[in-house]
Amino acid sequence: MTVHSDTLSLIGNTPLVRLAGPSKASGAEIYGKCEFMNPGASVKDRAALYIVEDAEEKGQLQPGGTIVEGTAGNTGIGLALVGNAKGYKTIIVMPETQSREKMDTLRALGAELVLVPAAPFSNPGHFVHTSRRIAEETPNAIWANQFDNTANRKAHILGTSEEIWAQMEGRVDGFTCAAGTGGTIAGVGLGLKQKDERVTIALTDPHGAALYNYYAHGELKAEGSSVAEGIGQGRITANLDGAPIDTQYRISDQEGMVWVEKLMGEGLCVGLSTGINIAGAVALGKQLGPGSRIVTILCDTGLRYLSTLYNREWLVSKGLTPFPWLSN
Ligand code: PMP
């Protein structure tokens, strides 16, 4: 048992766990990287720390400065924690469609929260553009810019992929996850390919995102929709640029929920992007064959979605079949 000498070093070095249900269903060995065990309970703590430390090293972030970001919520939570630990203020811009729990968490952490209506990226009121403007107008502030700041994927090249390689003792056949910024898929993909170029990197795309068609047919085209928070991208962000994607799957919310339910039966409470990742990992396991060793990301805690994914009325209102145990 190690003792950490400072709180920020609690970010990363997450456990990897073999998942019985997904392994059985695919005939492969499926492992989940427990990113919900980061201090901010999501995969985005890693990117938040690297983005802030990169800005400090470049002299862009001065003592007492402000970090501004547009986020589905998890990056904001990571930035607020890192900001608190280092003495920076955080201003977080979020679409108002995201879960109540993420908003309440950001307020609890002391971040200034700016809610904007959900809008397409081409709209100047989109949360990303709004956050850039606020950063420009705020003295002594940086714009974290997680989508196009490649310090994000560097966190996964230097951190997540190295950890996966060590934990798997150098035997990884495939890796898959969904993309929000693309930092995780691109960073882990690039890192694992550096170790062994035979590792298959698969993108698992939710409905409503454009990346499946881009990697399959060379065309950014979205079909359908998804209520999964934090994933689903319509463009090639700087973080996605050059991502070594070998194959791709499209997964519906209902398919993702099947795996959220099965993980609940294994004692894990996760968010929907994790369920979608597991569905992708099962598909990749079937593609690579029996006994293949597949890794995916358990992105965040389900406790962040008590009012949505784990709420019967909300699920019904979105046309999704509630989990059988939800009775409210
Ligand atoms: N799942 C959740 C719940 C997230 O918040 C995010 C971050 N947007 C992701 C998955 C995807 O991570 P990335 O931004 O690295 O693509």
TrEMBL record:
EC number per UniProt: 2.5.1.47
Protein origin, superkingdom:
Bacteria
Query: What molecular functions are annotated in GO for this chain?
Result: cysteine synthase activity
Q: In the UniProt record, does the keyword Amino-acid biosynthesis occur? A: yes
The processes (GO biological process) annotated in the record are: cysteine biosynthetic process from serine
Q: What class of enzyme is it?
A: transferase
| InterPro entries per UniProt | Cys_Synth/Cystath_Beta-Synth, P-phosphate_BS, TrpB-like_PALP, TrpB-like_PALP_sf
User: Which metal ions or organic cofactors does this protein require, according to UniProt?
Assistant: pyridoxal 5'-phosphate
Instruction: Tell me the route in metabolism or biology where this protein functions.
Output: Amino-acid biosynthesis
Q: Which UniProt keywords apply?
A: Amino-acid biosynthesis, Pyridoxal phosphate, Transferase, Transit peptide
Q: Where is the Tryptophan synthase beta chain-like PALP domain?
A: 10-300
Q: Which NCBIfam families match?
A: PRK10717.1
Please report the name of this protein according to its UniProt entry. Answer: Cysteine synthase A
Which organism is the protein's source? Sphingobium nicotianae
The opening ranks of the lineage are: Bacteria, Pseudomonadati, Pseudomonadota, Alphaproteobacteria, Sphingomonadales
